[in-house]
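Listing S7. Sequence submitted for prediction.
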Amino acid sequence: MGRKLPLGEGEAARTASAPVLLRSGVDEKTGEVITPAVLAERVGWCADLVAGMTGALLSGHWNAVDVDTLASGSDAGGRSLPSNAWMALRRLGWTVAPPDGVRVNDRIVRMAQEQAGRMLRSVKWRADVISGVLAAWPAAPDKRAPAEWEQVRAAIPGGEHLPSSVIRSRTRQVAAYARRHGRLPAGVFELEPSPGAARMLLLAACDGQQATIERSDDGRRALLRLQLPVRPDPTSYGDWTWVACPIQLPSTVPADAVLHLPTLRPSGGTTRADLAFTHPVPRPGAPGTPWPWGWTGA
């Protein structure tokens, strides 16, 4: 199925997500029907491989210099970094590999880079808040004077719009570190250890060589095909096989929606999927479109 959504006049595209459950699968190499428990196990093996590489990337780049570089949006040559996290990491030369003796295709590495890149990008805001709190550290952390509130807000990018509760919670976090270590931390990367990687497969970072999704003719079902390992430590490409997983689409997915590759999460013997889809909606302000207060554009 093509991913480009045809739009009519006065329409815009909206992307949403729906939770679905993968209830079974078929191993396309052997024709074996895979039970939900076995499917979750194989998805889990793949997710563990991705999580291991994601953790290595996070621990290797959990520092202010690398996070600032990624957040700057430009590489060393001044070129804009791609919006896709995995592509941005590759432009910067931040690579990773599976454990020795384990064979994975490049799309598995992409998923690890995508997850790590998203997490490293998201920490930039938190790092700026902590830096501002440290730069304007109050005389009494449990009670700032009015002038100290002005100072800390001025030290945080966009601090004038930041809720006071956020500044208070980050101040308590820093104060707890100071009580344990007898000094203030240098920044968020000393205050917090590198985060753990989630057991999930971000199939959106892949292409047709790793996963595909196709909607059925009746529009209420879809078929997800993806490569999964047949053992937790695949040593060759022969230890990977295509698995076809039928999906019953929930009623919240419109009949004219374009489906995107989901994110898979193995949990408790089941495989849950966050299925993204894009569908047309009336463009705000277009003629005939109702506005929130009841007025209809002319």
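Caption to Listing S7: primary sequence and predicted structure tokens for the chain studied. Residues 11-47+201-282 form one domain. Helices lie at 36-60, 64-72, 85-91, 106-135, 146-155, 164-181, 188-191.
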